[in-house]
């Protein structure tokens, strides 16, 4: 049985998603936001393009926007996790307000086994998910950002997609994931043949353009579920799905629960 609960933090779009998982395995996927994952109990297997680890209470995973990764049960009784999602705007504001000289940052590694920092982040992230006090949530978020910058030093100057032309096509899809994007249009935007574009896009992102677009649509759907009163069918249509059952299946495969269960929370 899987239970997925999301709590808005009220910090410029940052949010915490708390999940209780049994046998669910997340496929290789990515997000449009930064993701910081801590495991409160149990064991979670974690794989990215550069790392493989078993997450527990003494470590955590950090994932940049667009980074491929998965998650799966690595123990016997499932696991409980908190994932703090935050945006480029969140990091830019923190960097600007604290007079940090480098202005474009990203996670420098996918996992950390700094037990002391992991326990603090777990405690603070859990508190964000349960607190009803906006000021407290904002304070906790700032404290987590400070830990990442000053103590763990997990942020480094960010790396962008290797090819500017590939970035253009990715940004076009991100600007309007609900639209119908064709291989011909994306390749033309990048100034490549369809095959060259397909190969280059996959080398740069780890996903085909179709899989990348699916990720963008499901991320948009998750945000709409949290921030609007739209029905599941309305959200499916808003995200480019004309078949609601297909939308529900795709959503559950990625997030481990149905769109309706999130709405009920």
Question: What secondary-structure arrangement, pairings included, does this model have?
Answer:
Elements: E1 3-11, E2 14-21, E3 26-29, E4 34-42, E5 44-48, E6 52-55, E7 60-63, E8 69-73, E9 79-86, H1 88-97, E10 105-107, E11 111-112, H2 115-130, H3 134-151, E12 155-157, H4 164-175, H5 183-190, H6 194-205, H7 209-227, H8 232-238, H9 244-255, H10 259-264
Antiparallel strand pairs: 1-2, 2-9, 3-8, 4-7, 4-9, 5-6, 5-8, 7-11, 10-12
Quick tags:
alpha+beta, Jelly Rolls, 2 domains, 6-stranded antiparallel β-sheet, 4-stranded antiparallel β-sheet, 10 helices, 12 strands, 45% helix
Secondary-structure arrangement, i.e. CATH architecture of the largest domain: Sandwich
Q: What is Rg?
A: 18 Å
Number of strands: 12
State which percent range the strand residues make up. Answer: 15-25%
What is the typical, i.e. mean, pLDDT?
A: 85
- What level of helicity do the residues show? 40-55%
